[in-house]
């Protein structure tokens, strides 16, 4: 509990800093159009910079720090990751592809980093403006933020892509830097609020794919009566490895992707309790 308090305190300081800056726009490090892995249909994904977690497998390490930073591209050219946009500017960019969202049942996904670790006044206003013009908003979150951040976007968001990395809090802390208490607590509250939740499970061979961990996960979901629209299984990949060197950091990843047979078994197992279990996002 001490660790959680320390974590919440550290995070709260960041929120206060952001709010003190009134409508300060968060930093965005990428806008990906025609995305098909960040929720239903064709989507535009906005990647906000800054995350309260530091997952060892993170394939977007440029998303972790809140401030802009230098990164080399594949031709060794330096670029600055992270720039600010006004809400009007982002709404205009999103609106340009509205026809594709409408035809495919898609929309806009706020991702990161962690979008709910950003200035909530800005984020909720952006979501509200998109909803106002008929664009559906999905929030991709690691859940490790105060509940008030969820409350701010709930009225304007249609879907939550909710990452649960480990049901075991010690493992969560060891590999992400923070325990999972906030993550589980927010998931319960989000489900109780009737939100459409797509639970996203990264699969790390031998860590969260063991019989024991899967059973604990299933038991917890059942005991808490968590209502899910879908479960997405996301097998680990190391596509982001090179980015660490491009940022001048050391990559310490040593994870393994489960075999296809294992992934199929996990899918089958979870299908016994949840109707819609997909591999991939
Ligand atoms: S929560 Fe996502 S963005 Fe944040 S460190 Fe973990 S993998 Fe990276």
UniProtKB/TrEMBL annotation:
<keyword id="KW-0411">Iron-sulfur</keyword>
<keyword id="KW-0479">Metal-binding</keyword>
<dbReference type="InterPro" id="IPR013785">
    <property type="entry name" value="Aldolase_TIM"/>
</dbReference>
<keyword id="KW-0004">4Fe-4S</keyword>
<keyword id="KW-0949">S-adenosyl-L-methionine</keyword>
<feature type="domain" description="Radical SAM core">
    <location>
        <begin position="37"/>
        <end position="281"/>
    </location>
</feature>
<dbReference type="InterPro" id="IPR007197">
    <property type="entry name" value="rSAM"/>
</dbReference>
<keyword id="KW-0408">Iron</keyword>
<dbReference type="InterPro" id="IPR001989">
    <property type="entry name" value="Radical_activat_CS"/>
</dbReference>
<dbReference type="Pfam" id="PF04055">
    <property type="entry name" value="Radical_SAM"/>
</dbReference>
<protein>
    <submittedName>
        <fullName>Formate acetyltransferase activating enzyme</fullName>
    </submittedName>
</protein>
<dbReference type="InterPro" id="IPR034457">
    <property type="entry name" value="Organic_radical-activating"/>
</dbReference>
<keyword id="KW-0560">Oxidoreductase</keyword>
<dbReference type="GO" id="GO:0051539">
    <property type="term" value="F:4 iron, 4 sulfur cluster binding"/>
</dbReference>
<dbReference type="GO" id="GO:0046872">
    <property type="term" value="F:metal ion binding"/>
</dbReference>
<dbReference type="InterPro" id="IPR012839">
    <property type="entry name" value="Organic_radical_activase"/>
</dbReference>
<dbReference type="GO" id="GO:0016740">
    <property type="term" value="F:transferase activity"/>
</dbReference>
<dbReference type="GO" id="GO:0016491">
    <property type="term" value="F:oxidoreductase activity"/>
</dbReference>
<comment type="similarity">
    <text>Belongs to the organic radical-activating enzymes family.</text>
</comment>
<dbReference type="InterPro" id="IPR058240">
    <property type="entry name" value="rSAM_sf"/>
</dbReference>
<keyword id="KW-0808">Transferase</keyword>
